[in-house]
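To assess whether ligand presence alters the predicted conformation, the chain was also submitted together with adenosine monophosphate. Input:
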Amino acid sequence: MEGLIMDYPLTTNTILEYGNNVYHHKKIITHLPDGTRHEYRFGDMYKRCKKLANALTRKLGITKGDMVGTFAWNHGPHVELYYGVSGMGAVCHTINIRLSSHQIEYIINNSEDKVIFVDATLVPLLEKIAPLLETVEYYILINAAEDFTTTLPNTLHYEDLLADQSEDFEWPTLNENDACGLCYTSGTTGFPKGVLYSHRSTFLHATTIISPNAGNFSNRDTVLLIVPQFHVMAWGFPYLCLLSGSNMVLPSSNLQPEAIIKILKEEKVNKANGVPTIWLGVYDAMKMNPPKEKLALEEYIVGGSALPKSLIEGFEKDFGIRGVHAWGMTETSPLGTVSRIQSKHERLSENEKLDIRAKQGTAFPGVELRIVTDDGTLAPTDGKTMGELQVKGAWTVSSYFKTNNHESFTEDGWFKTGDVSTIDEDGYMEIKDRAKDLIKSGGEWISSVALESALMAHPKIKEAAVIAISDEKWVEKPLASIVLVHNEDKILDEELIEFLSRDFVKYQIPKDYVYIKEVPKTSVGKFDKKEIRRLFSEGKLN
Ligand code: AMP
């Protein structure tokens, strides 16, 4: 028997309408790259979303299901795009500006973006590949001066696009399972894969993160969204701020520690998100130059890479600011777990509590986790037995966009994360290693396999194996171990950096090289990365 409850679609429109009805007075503040500050209200943003929906429909010929790309930092117009595009039934495809031109070209052609909204400061990155983009009909320039010049074809200024549009727009009736957003993973060895979020998954993810056991957001908060809007919808924060009535502060490209501290001070921010590298930088800068007055910042939520216990401890001891550790993936919308102390932990020592908080944490309601060992059995929840972390839930990917990537899913419907973890008896998950052969540096992925193939194309190199090593600032960085064709050959590190810069962007290129006689191999002849890591940690890799 079915329940007798209305079938009320959970869509991003309902989030926008709610934010406008209840919290129209709440603020959206942007700090632009030129140092200027822009402030408006949820209510103003709401009206501009409707103008945008009209412009998309009437001026740009966008219809339901079309892909609309964004190539932009965090700011008010980017939030308008999240709501305006999905509100009229199209899909907001946020393109990661940090990928290589080759990957960006692939992503835009694969998703078939019809229009791209691009920040003026990022235009040069698109100009290089524009002739190769097969489906893009218009480029809409955001924050561009009137006399801005570009070689991009068919450009319009964002403000001109909205200028003569009506603020009346009736949202179409959408199915909650319709797609609303698209984000590509960048962590793969092959081409990036698209994850297509639905209205329902987006709504449920955002409402869940608000709760006190999770992100703990309310209408008393002012939240700084440091996670870029081109990274998994800024972890759903533009949605949860409207639902919780939190003021939203957007830093655009002002991501240097000093710039972040300035914004935290000026806007009296009390909650924020970001990858560990950002918070390591902010902590170091605050240590060097302690703020005269205590910041309003109470909590920063960290994910993307492991939050070091020492950072949680340092921030809290020195500045009274709490670090909250979370884990997630592009494939999980992204948030899957969060680590918070429970009432039953109160009797533990401070150090024991820190140990719990440094774990990746417990699953959110709506997410299930399990660990599968190498022999295919389910690991006990003993906090010791390691295996691959698998996940399922209301905002976990069910298949990749346009790709039959069966190997990422189990027959009984779980998503294989590629993270090697444990789960303890209280459900706290801890990441121990990574099965996928990748390095995550400053929150961005580097494919070790791609680096190895590129290095092995060098005439003087016979074999190259790349591993992740830890780094204070970037959490991880690549180290390349090289076997030369002729032992007596010499290659300068600078020569290799120059060689790799043809195919890789700067942050992806290893700065550390060691020269070895042979790469250790597994029984089937594959590079034995575990062994290379062991040799490195024991100082024997040379
Ligand atoms: P992405 O899809 O780029 O968001 O990357 C997801 C991956 O980042 C996960 O599968 C993990 O390998 C890694 N990751 C995310 N959060 C954490 C965390 N808190 N600790 C360690 N690794 C993390």
